[in-house]
Amino acid sequence: MGGAVSAGEDNDDLIDNLKEAQYIRTEKVEQAFRAIDRGDYYLDGYRDGAYKDLAWKHGNIHLSAPCIYSEVMEALKLQPGLSFLNLGSGTGYLSTMVGLIIGPFGVNHGVELHKDVVEYAREKLDEFIKTSDSFDRFEFCEPVFVVGNCLEISTDSHQYDRVYCGAGVQKEQEDYMKVLLKVGGILVMPVEDQLTQITRTGQSTWESKNILAVSFAPLAQQNRGDGEKPDIVYLPPVTVRSLQDLSRIYIRRTLSSLAGEDGLGRSSVQRVLQKRKRRRCRRRRINTYVFVGNQLIPQTVESEEEEHGEEELKQQQQEEEEEEEERDIGDIEILKQVNLLRDQIMSLPLPESLKAYLLYYREK
Ligand SMILES: C[S@@+](CC[C@H](N)C(=O)[O-])C[C@H]1O[C@@H](n2cnc3c(N)ncnc32)[C@H](O)[C@@H]1O
């Protein structure tokens, strides 16, 4: 499934294409997609395929196509502070993007059938938290994944504001999914080859809307013998943050706004004036022939050429017969990614251990 938009060269390129094709329509969804590189969820050696609008499967690891994720993220209508449940959470790519929008006062849970996939998702999440600058540009609700069959969730589990199911749902499984929702909540899932958005409008009323024709692998079902009990899945508890954690969130929030960050990762690109690379004006000796009287005489004539770009400059240096002349042609503006929050924290007159705490012990 997928292939609706042209392939990108990198993550930003892919997002540009998804935006142009109207799959991404809101700024917060765009920022979440830009903040997380889809290639980081691919196995080493497969990354090249990450920026194509195609689903990817390798063993138990399975990612849906970018155009599907865009529609899903838009249809979920995410807001800060909401609770989210991802059924078939896979690599955690979608859950991590959701976490950037719902922020630290949200709830972010995922259920995945395969233990190895949950381990993979935890590794990827750890990598994101430790190494990505996006972590400091957004307020994040860390996803918590559990292993289990999402069709066997304990009946006394809490309900969620938003639910997504990443595998095909049959008509008779629809009611089971709908009760996982709070009143007013939104459920997005592929039901019989239609990506469907269901809004719970009351205790026993729902409204349904088809979004897109899709093709998903169906939810795996457990084959059990007669009388064999299901392995009930207990969802993670909804925990209250500690006072220490809350303080860290508010200190970071205050510092971010002082630094001009807006929580959507927009002001981390700084315009920097830099001396423009020198343009070389080179004189090249060209062997040519001139007529003197009626005779052709070989001559060396000097020609002038202007060159731009590093590659060409390197080549020029190798050409020994050239005479080079350099001149400075002023400043140009370049865009530089900066971590404003980190800079703010590092400049505080605080003990190093406290700075490290405020930075979530991130070294980058
Ligand atoms: C298309 S993938 C979803 C990928 C995910 N959205 C991501 O961001 O990586 C579907 C996932 O559903 C899982 N799955 C299928 N049936 C399941 C079930 N009954 N319970 C839990 N997970 C299931 C699969 O193992 C697979 O990881």
From TrEMBL:
One function term, GO molecular function aspect: protein-L-isoaspartate (D-aspartate) O-methyltransferase activity
Annotated GO CC locations: cytoplasm; membrane
Subcellular location: Cytoplasm; Membrane
Compositional bias of kind Acidic residues: 318-328
Matching InterPro entries: PCMT, SAM-dependent_MTases_sf
Record's keyword terms, sorted: Cytoplasm, Lipoprotein, Membrane, Myristate
Main localization, broad class: cytoplasm
Chain segments carrying region Disordered: 300-330
SUPFAM superfamilies: S-adenosyl-L-methionine-dependent methyltransferases (SSF53335)
Membrane-protein topology: Lipid-anchor
Homology family: Belongs to the methyltransferase superfamily. L-isoaspartyl/D-aspartyl protein methyltransferase family.
Function: Substrate recognition component of an ECS (Elongin BC-CUL5-SOCS-box protein) E3 ubiquitin ligase complex which mediates the ubiquitination and subsequent proteasomal degradation of target proteins. Specifically binds to the methyltransferase cofactor S-adenosylmethionine (AdoMet) via the N-terminal AdoMet binding motif, but does not display methyltransferase activity. May provide an alternate maintenance pathway for modified proteins by acting as a damage-specific E3 ubiquitin ligase adaptor protein.
Protein name per UniProt: Protein-L-isoaspartate O-methyltransferase domain-containing protein 1
Organism field: Gouania willdenowi (Blunt-snouted clingfish)
Gene: pcmtd1
